[in-house]
Amino acid sequence: xxxxTRRAVLAGMxxxxxxxxxxxxxxxxxxxxxxxxxxxxGGSTDAAARLAAPGLQQRLGVPIxxxxxxxxxxxxxxxxxAKAKPDGYTWLLTFDxxxxxPVLVPNLPFDLQKGFDPVTQIxxxxxxxxxxxxxxxxxxxxxxxxxxxxxxxxxxxxxxxxGHLVMLMMLxxxxxxxxxxxxxxxxxxxxxxxxxxxxxMIGSAALLAPQVSSGTLRPLLQLGAQRLxxxxxxxxxEEAGFKDLTAEAWWGVFGPAGVPEPVLKRFQAALIxxxxxxxxxxxxxxxxxxxxxxxxxxxxxxxxxxxxxxxGEVARANNVKPD
Length: 323
Prior knowledge:
This protein has 323 residues and is of the alpha/beta class.
């Protein structure tokens, strides 16, 4: 009798839990899901979103659209997600400048750490400095030397991105100056670098991999701890004399604060499974020279907190101002 009663109680508890889940998720998903990318099309963040979209659509059974809403260091698109209804139909897929918005955007209209539910850090990739092959720089030292006697420009994927900040750190160590040209997206920066309109650019290995492999850009320096397999002849910053200097781009996914946990967990699982598909994983890791992370939400929250502290300090030390 006792055993039967215990089973009945457990069954009742399970039924109640299932009812709560159904109440929270309803028939989710039952309509189009949008992934907001807070940058223009053509960059690595946009590409990361579009890589996952078909797998998400297959797993969740609803259309997935990628919506580019660029501007103000990514805060325009981020604000859309922060203010969206937390029903699982609006998500943010963003880039490393996410952690710098409190420094770069005056009167930020949302709380960076309280306004979002972290889902997963997709991956990371070292930054790479590259130039058009007909530029006179064979090494990064050549560029620094040239900057002492004439104006040199470098492009980045945006003001306050980690790429921009690490360039400022190197320039300060070398005691030289260069003109910074921030672009609204990685795609625009790459186009101008390939065309020679900017002397060199810094972007993630994932962004620059196609141009480096095709020979339309020449890599000068990589900012990972070790040389990438795809860049065996390109020195790291440490090898070039910048002791203990590394810089990695990263991509993460967030929802508006308050997404029901069952919805968030289901979306997270579908997202991670999509990136782990062999074809997608190969594209991300081998073709794009990036590393998949795919941790949980709390791990992403802790990571972002460290990024805010580390790079926020660099931005303030270098007096980086909003665009």
